[in-house]
Amino acid sequence: MAASDVIRLGSRGSTLALWQAGHIRAEVERRTGRKVEIIKIKTTGDMILDVPLSKVGGKGLFVKEIEEALLSNRVDLAVHSMKDVPTDLPAGLEISCITLREDPRDAFLSVKCARFEDLPKGARVGTSSLRRQTQLLGLRPDLSIGQLRGNLDSRIRKMEDGKYDAIILAAAGLRRLGWDGKIRQYFPADVSIPAIGQGALGIEIRSDDARTREAVAFLNDRDTSLAVRAERGFLKRLEGGCQVPIAAHGTTSGETLVLAGLIGKPDGTRILRGSRSGSVSDPEAIGVALAEELLSRGGREILDEVYRQSGS
Question: What are phi and psi of 147, to 5 degrees?
């Protein structure tokens, strides 16, 4: 097979990232007949595990090095969890398609308790996400939230070893790896609004690479793409990153898109929620409109305080 017939796919090296890359490889090889080679790339987010993401600073912690490989022509495409992808892409790159979304909800895992409601007062709960922390403390101010970094295997092991009474993870990753049997409870999306893009995979390519764009176009899911575009419109207007508890979740019904969103303080003492609906013809505009609404209701003050405290 000629080298030009091989598609080089850049991926992080975690178990979940390699599963996702392998899934896309199989689909592309089946559809195009071309060979796909997975190239593992270590990112900043993979290397810094002893600091909360909110303290690391910067954006694109799990994609920057992979994007550099794309720009230097070392790989032809990248598979990302859309929740890791900043809204501003480097010049010369694009998200060419977004795949059918897996379950976007947050999942409750515990050895000790069958339900979140059963956690004892002061229970220690592990999560790496300020978004989850905000919503958990909004529901249960008594909880002790601990930072939980590392791959899925190590996070679950920390819970099983007794470091945490419970941990909260994205259901999508657990389901993809066949570990959904470990899930005790799913949080409804209106109780714990998911992260922007949670459960969706994005395919990033060079903007001038028409051949790769054509090869992966079949992977795009219309409804998922529309919903994620609205969510990212919300995030872009708020200029959010890992340092800020921001959440949004879009759903489509025919030609209508509904977006729910949230801005909150990390300690859960103030949480603003809202929703907007509109035509799928301009999903980003729905996200911007919802962001403007929450900013006008006090979201600007919340964000200013959070950024001030984080030193951003």
Answer: -70, 130
Q: Which residues pair with 6 in a beta bridge?
A: 35
Which pTM does this prediction carry? Answer: 0.92
- Alpha carbon distances (Å) from 32 to 78, 97, 205: 17, 16, 17
Q: Do domains 106-186 and 221-306 have the same CATH topology?
A: no
Using CA atoms, how far apart are residues 257 and 222, in angstroms rounded to an integer?
12
CATH superfamily of this structure's domain 1-99+199-220: Periplasmic binding protein-like II (3.40.190.10)
What distance in Å separates the CA atoms of residue 156 and residue 81, rounded to the nearest whole number?
A: 20
* Secondary-structure class of domain 221-306 per CATH: alpha beta
Q: Which H or E run contains 96?
A: strand 93-98
8 A C-beta contact, residue 125 and residue 119: yes
Nearest Cα neighbor of 79 from 223, 258, 212 is 212
Candidate list 84, 103, 106, 165, residue with the active-site label: 84
Radius of gyration from C-alpha coordinates of the chain = 19
Q: Is 84 labeled as catalytic in the residue annotation?
A: yes
Return the structure tokens found at 117.
């409601």
Is 2 a residue whose pLDDT tops 70?
no
User: Tell me: the pLDDT tens digits for 45-96?
Assistant: 665 555 555 554 555 677 899 999 999 999 999 999 999 899 999 999 999 9
Mean pLDDT score, 283-291: 98
Q: How many helices (H) and strands (E) does the chain have?
A: 11, 13
Query: What's the CA gap between 173 and 195, in Å, rounded?
Result: 13
The half-sphere exposure of 230 on its side-chain side, counting CA atoms within 13 A, is 28
Residue 53: left (phi > 0), alpha (psi -120 to 50), or beta?
alpha
If we measure between CA atoms, which residue out of 169, 182, 40, 35 comes closest to residue 105? 169
Between CA 39 and CA 9 the distance in angstroms is 6
